[in-house]
Amino acid sequence: MIEFRAHGKLFVAGEYAVVEPGQPSVLIALDRAITARVAEGHGSGTVHSEEYGHLPLTWTRADDGLALDREHHPYDYVMATIDLVEKLRAERGIAPRFHDLRIESQLDDASGRKFGLGSSAAVTVATVGALDRFYGIGLSQRDRFRVALLATIRVNPRASGGDLAASTFGGWLRYSAPDRERLAGMLGGRTVSEVLADADAWTGFDVERLPAPKDLELLVGWTGSPASTTKLVDVVRRHRNGGYPAFLDESRTCVDDLTTGLRSGDAAQTLDALRRARTLLQGLGASVGSQIETERLATLCDVVEAAGGAAKPSGAGGGDCGIALVPADTDLAGIHRAWEAHDIRHLSVAVQAPEGSV
Ligand code: MEV
Q1: Which CATH number is 92's domain given?
Q2: In the 8-state DSSP scheme, what is residue 72?
Q3: Which of 88, 136, 163, 319 could form a disulfide bond with 118, CB atoms 3.0-4.6 angstroms apart?
Q4: How many domains does the chain have?
Q5: Does ipTM surpass 0.90 in this model?
Q6: How far apart are alpha carbons 5 and 35 in whole angstroms?
Q7: 175 lines ligand 1 (CB under 6 A)
Q8: Residue 331 domain-assigned?
Q9: Model confidence over 145-165: pLDDT tens digits?
Q10: Any idea where the GHMP kinase N-terminal domain is (predicted)?
Q11: 247-257 pLDDT, tens per residue?
């Protein structure tokens, strides 16, 4: 049995802007994960998860042996990933094998509701990692990220891949994305190995480790309302107006200041950048007529600001989680109580230690 764990994530700053190639963001990986386990299949393959139940994989005979039969499967992150890794396996001359894939998630609550901690990304990274080990392909950490991004853009071409980077590399990260439309176009005519090896194709992609903030505690609150990132990103795309270039500039400055605050261990600068990141999202929401900061998210943030910290919606907003940093001597239990009074649940999470070098 081969096992691979991939972590959940939260955006700290740079949301929405990060969908533009080269625009920076800051993310953290969390100690909650999705685990993919692969075992040898016998004459057939399966995927087993909460989402699918028990799903038999049907395969068609292809020149190189076996290929996933796309018509018989929901073409989502797991299927797109299996499909891509099978292509890569064939390109590397590795013989095909049937496999049973089991997926287990710590990124949902007991009743299966998603917290909004990047489960699509984590399931993609976990599947790439588990199949890479199963076939002994030997992908580097960066190539695992790249394969996960190529699989993701087949399902959601606008996704920035920031969540995949956090899930792959762990810790605190600064991330900017390559041009996914260009990558998607390339995959049409070239092998997966060629696209992975083409440095030019990945222009704009950058990932750097950042130190954890000094003298500040991280808090995460869950609003209990699920949000659709794809829909919200689409609304911003359709309604963005003349102020959009200024939003991108301000987002870059805010992420740069946050990066400097973290690197120099300057708690005041870090908190100030996080507050500006909240204001930027409020302005973006107002300009496109979309509630990125819902009432409950606003309460979540206001409670933290009143206690001397900084907070903002994490990710696309519209529900899901808010992220907060507070001075280390803050009354954390007081914040938790105030959140609970407004039906906001404190999620007990920690930042996952960095894995490998980026
Ligand atoms: C969603 O978690 C964050 C967005 O920036 C979209 C993305 O990065 O793909 C809104």
Answers
A1: 3.30.230.10
A2: G
A3: 163
A4: 2
A5: yes
A6: 4
A7: no
A8: yes
A9: 999 999 999 999 999 999 999
A10: 84-171
A11: 999 999 999 99
